[in-house]
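Worked example

This section walks through a single chain of length 184. The input is the sequence exactly as stored; nothing has been trimmed or padded.
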Amino acid sequence: MNNSLKTKLKKIKCIMLDVDGVLTDGKIIVGTDGVEYKNFSVKDGVAIYIAEKAGIEFAIISGRYSKINETRAKEFRIKYVYQDLSNKLEPYEKIKIELNLKDEEICFIGDDLIDIPVMQKCGFSAAPNDACEEVKKVSDFICKKNGGEGCVREIIEILLKIQGKWQECLNWYLNRENKNIKKN
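Given that input, the structure is written out below as tokens.
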């Protein structure tokens, strides 16, 4: 990663995420009972949990409404969730004002055409490896991982390492987990 991108990442305080194709693999399964199912990566969830402890804010901005998105956001403790949108810039601006952020302090991870306006405005934009070509062209960084397969974790790890927070977060996480293990 070049120094220009590292400089951009050092400023990031908030990561905004698309859902379908970023937090998930983009596939939607609907059962005969109408219940919708999606594949989320546990690795992304762990990374979000760790990054929140480092002071990174998170938001979900999805073009499509889904109850499971709300459920997953609650599991991640993400308080900014906007869905069923044709214009993602409106919630982007609302969140930016509410958190008192500048564009350069926001990272957006998106994978499809609807994400491009926000990706062009934020300080650092990233896309999963399987994003559409138009999104890849406007992205600061293209992940090695596909959507729903750890691309969010990939960005979080890079971000926390560049900000010098990764090792401290990792130590906190490992020590936190070890406290829950009963000794024989």
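What to look for: The domain at 3-177 is CATH 3.40.50.1000 (Rossmann fold).
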